[in-house]
Specification:
89 residues, three-stranded antiparallel beta sheet, alpha+beta
């Protein structure tokens, strides 16, 4: 299945919709979905930094696993769950 995922300006996942929902709610236009999620009613703002990405998953479970895995690298680094080694520059 094709999914459209909205990520905010910081790269954080916010919302996912199916291709059918995109057709029904936004006339199949990912830019309208982006504008709705970012709060831009007059079209793409030059300050808009979020984005919509297209992904293909075989089922909703695979989508949920992907969403659950997002952010692990950053969280692991900043919360010190990984080894921290000094580098010589």
């Amino acid at each position: 299945m094709k999914y459209y995922l909205y990520f905010d300006g910081y790269g954080n996942f916010v919302k996912a919709i199916t291709e059918e929902e995109l057709k029904r709610l936004y006339s199949g236009d990912p830019d309208r979905f982006l504008n709705d999620m970012s709060g831009s009613e007059t079209g793409r703002s030059r300050f808009q930094t979020g984005h919509v990405a297209t992904f293909f998953f075989k089922d909703k479970k695979e989508l949920e696993e992907f969403i659950g895995s997002l952010g692990d690298e950053v969280e692991g680094f900043y919360c010190c769950r990984s080894d921290s080694r000094p580098y010589n520059f």
